[in-house]
Amino acid sequence: METTHRLEWTLLATPLMAFLLVCLGFPAIVNLIYSVSDISFETLRSPEISGFGNFAAVLTDSGFWRANWFSLRFGLLTAILECLIGLGLAVFLAPLFKERSWPIAILMLPLMVAPALMGLMYRLVLHEFAGPVPHYLWAWFGNSPAFLGPNSAFWTLIVVETLQWTPFAFLLFHMAYQAIPEELREAASIDGATGFARFWRIELPLMLPTLAAALLIRFIDGFRVFDNVYVLTGSGAGGSTTSLSIYIYEAFFKQAAIGKAVAASVILFAASFAVLYGLNRLARRRRR
């Protein structure tokens, strides 16, 4: 029986493994070769192995660590804000959504816009000289912050990212909240639990797996952010808004340092794999 089960699993997994090897394996091998090579656009087909100099150049580059610090802060803050706001909307608007479901479609509208277009829209709206928001702030209050300036750009990017991707977190929490059996809520009410106590002791614990998944997904997406940041501020004044993705992009296309860019991407992949592997091991231990 066990042998049959293994054979079935092998037969079912073989097409997937072949697909992954073709689509991911070959690019991964090429990247590993490029990361230890002295390479340019003219020598893409004939790289010269030069050792680990590209990795040393990346790890000793202060710009690489600034980009990591920016991406880490950006990913954590946006993930936390999006999940808090999304959870609040899912819980407090649940009675409304039971009666009318069409407001959900309105909340989903930001997800329909490409991140680059969203960034372009906010760049026009918040432009210091031509944007309507600074214009009316000057007209009404006699002052307006430079939303895209070096002192405010980070928080502007946080707000823009949160506004666009909070609906994603809300949708996850809405589905998880609706999946909680009504019998549990009724039993808690009979036992005298108030609305907050019911949420804190019954509903929130049942939604913790969804909360953890949403935080992880949004952190990963925020950490690798490129579109919004690049369109709104680029690398920023003195590299103040350079995410890790922008760092790799500029090293590859602007500096033509292909080996350095690929080495940075390999380091990012290795770090991401280590984090995901650690989280998976932790989840398995808790299940046991």
What does this structure look like?
With 288 residues, the chain is mainly α. The protein has a domain at 67-256: MetI-like fold (Orthogonal Bundle), CATH 1.10.3720.10. The chain contains 13 helices and two strands, in the order H-E-E-H-H-H-H-H-H-H-H-H-H-H-H. A two-stranded antiparallel ribbon has the order 1-2. The model has no long low-confidence stretch (mean pLDDT 84).
What's the tally of helices?
Answer: 13
Strand content: under 5%
Terminal Cα separation, in Å? 25 Å
- Radius of gyration over all CA atoms, rounded: 24 Å
Would you summarize the structure shown here?
Helix content is 75%, strand content 1%. It has 288 residues and is an all-alpha fold.
Helix and strand layout, with pairings?
Elements: H1 2-35, E1 37-38, E2 48-49, H2 53-59, H3 62-92, H4 94-99, H5 102-107, H6 115-125, H7 132-141, H8 153-178, H9 182-190, H10 195-223, H11 227-232, H12 244-254, H13 258-287
Characteristic terms for this protein:
mainly alpha
